């Protein structure tokens, strides 16, 4: 079974704008996959649909064979999502945000605590665990969102433009971390508009433009053609 299978996905927003015009793609288990495309191509819409934040117009999405419409709770357990934008409430503390997410996945408190601490350490946020999240720098907020997405140890991690606006130093350390968890077996799918990011991290790539997949190939053969 594919880690992610998308078939003929369409999205027309309320203003009749066709953001996705029949997107199909398949990501194999263990892959490090890039969805590469310019701003406005439909990347966030696709991710929004996968995590059921955006209602699709038609098409099918399966995560390890679990249809997000008919088998939502099984699909949800397989998925960790790092959105591009996030709003933390005023006083929520870093560690509590990760713990709450464990609760959302039905994890026992002790297990959530153990995982929260593990990922806060791995992502360099241990010292900030009692800090209100809104006081973190942009890069730290992104790392917090990664820790939060990993607390239930999903088999698929999807990140929407994970390093947009992040400085080069932090970008490299985030890349390193993502390579590490991919090497440990997590399937990673990220959207990006930086070719360099896709090139540095990903084995396979789909290029999306104006709501359509225009290429779907290995990173190596894409680079040969450029
Ligand atoms: P649907 O209900 O079909 O899922 P939405 O209700 O989410 O679509 O869209 C609500 C409205 O919000 C849209 O019709 C649009 O006017 C506006 N909107 C929100 N985000 C954007 C955006 N990025 N670009 C253009 N319009 C937007
Ligand atoms: P990307 O993530 O690749 O930048 P998006 O999926 O955010 O692209 O947006 C794809 C297109 O859909 C853009 O033209 C955007 O303006 C439009 N769009 C996004 N959200 C909405 C919405 N809620 N209502 C109407 N149009 C939207």
TrEMBL record:
Residues 4-226 form the ABC transporter domain. One of its GO terms (molecular function) is ATP binding. Keywords: ATP-binding, Nucleotide-binding, Transport. This is ABC transporter ATP-binding protein. It comes from Gilvimarinus xylanilyticus. The chain holds residues 2 to 227 of 312 of the full protein.
């Amino acid at each position: 079974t594919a880690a992610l299978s998308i078939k003929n996905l369409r999205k027309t927003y309320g203003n009749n704008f066709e953001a996705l015009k029949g997107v199909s793609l398949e990501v194999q288990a263990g892959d490090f996959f890039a969805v590469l495309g310019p701003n406005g191509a439909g990347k966030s819409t696709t991710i929004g649909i996968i995590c059921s934040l955006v209602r699709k117009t038609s098409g099918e999405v399966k995560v390890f064979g679990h249809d997000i419409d008919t088998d939502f709770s099984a699909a949800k357990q397989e998925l960790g999502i790092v959105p591009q934008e996030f709003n933390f409430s005023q006083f929520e503390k870093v560690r509590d945000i990760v713990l709450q997410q464990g609760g959302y996945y039905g994890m026992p408190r002790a297990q959530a605590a153990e995982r929260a601490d593990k990922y806060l350490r791995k992502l360099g946020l241990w010292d900030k665990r009692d800090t209100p999240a809104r006081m973190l720098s942009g890069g730290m907020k992104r790392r917090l969102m990664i820790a939060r997405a990993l607390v239930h140890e999903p088999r698929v991690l999807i990140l929407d433009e994970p390093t947009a606006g992040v400085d080069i130093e932090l970008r490299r350390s985030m890349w390193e971390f993502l390579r590490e968890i991919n090497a440990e077996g997590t399937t990673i799918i990220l959207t990006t508009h930086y070719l360099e990011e896709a090139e540095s991290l990903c084995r396979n790539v789909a290029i999306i433009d104006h709501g359509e997949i225009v290429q779907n190939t290995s990173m190596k053969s894409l680079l040969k053609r450029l």
